[in-house]
Amino acid sequence: MPRFTPGELSVMGVLWEHGEMKPSEIQERYPEPIKNPALRSYLTILLDKGHISRRKVGKAYYYKAVTRQQSAFSETVREVIDAYCGGSAQALLLNLIRSEKLSEEELVELKRLADGEPPGPPKRRRKKS
Amino acid sequence: MPRFTPGELSVMGVLWEHGEMKPSEIQERYPEPIKNPALRSYLTILLDKGHISRRKVGKAYYYKAVTRQQSAFSETVREVIDAYCGGSAQALLLNLIRSEKLSEEELVELKRLADGEPPGPPKRRRKKS
DNA sequence: AGTGATGTGCAGAATATACTGCACATAAGC
DNA sequence: GCTTATGTGCAGTATATTCTGCACATCACT
User: Fold this and answer.
1) Residues 55-74 of A with CB under 7 A from strand D
2) Residue B63: inside a domain, yes or no?
3) What is the per-residue pLDDT across B65-108, written as a single tens digit (0 to 9) for each?
4) Nearest nucleotide from residue B48 CA, by C1' atom
5) Is there contact between B23 and strand D, defined as CB under 7 Å from any strand atom?
6) Helices A104-116/B104-116 angle, 10° precision
């Protein structure tokens, strides 16, 4: 359900990284210069959508992420895979491996990961989403 | 540069899969029921943005993709990686591997791919796009 | 109490997205 | 030539996104 716009995603990124913060603090860490009122309008939208919550401390509101980064990430990846790879995660992997984004070390690490997980269906569920 | 909206992406998907087509044909293959005027408004937007081009054949316009699927895909993946993984493709892979999206066979295939590609810069280009 | 800095609330506004509707043009068959 | 599909052009609407501006509240300090 995320489908964050660029502006929303930047805000979420700051909150995911730094936790609970008030607007002026988010503003400082926002990836590009942004004016306070503009930022606050993003916060309002995210609040409406339920992706963040806020809490009054003194005279200021402190905002924090409700939607978890991992959830948003997984959903986004799924959407990309569905849209571009006919639902097959393999095509995404192939693209990643073929592109310059993966160094040789990363490939080695990747194989290690692939080895570590497999035999049989993993018992531990990952149903937190 | 893509940042396709859901509607735009659906249109691009049809054009990527089936090549040059006129609106009524795209409409038939659109993933969900869509009215002709609605579809045409997407086409107009995509045309404005330069993602598609059109050519008159008889009385109808035939539309085809200008932006390649591979390009849009790569860019989208990069955006996701930048936004969610601090630019590291590895985090994306880790997520894919840990999720239920990859079967055991896919992991085996994955390792094969990781093995097949590595040492040095790959000589074979994949520039057919 | 008065002043300034910092926050908030609210009311727009410009553009983009996601549509709808209808008049008009063109091609094909009678 | 006339009618009927089929397709286009254009204008308009509703909502979302991305902002801006300003009045007002609160806190700290003197």
Assistant:
1) 58-59
2) yes
3) 999 988 888 888 888 888 887 777 777 777 777 765 666 666 67
4) C16
5) yes
6) 160
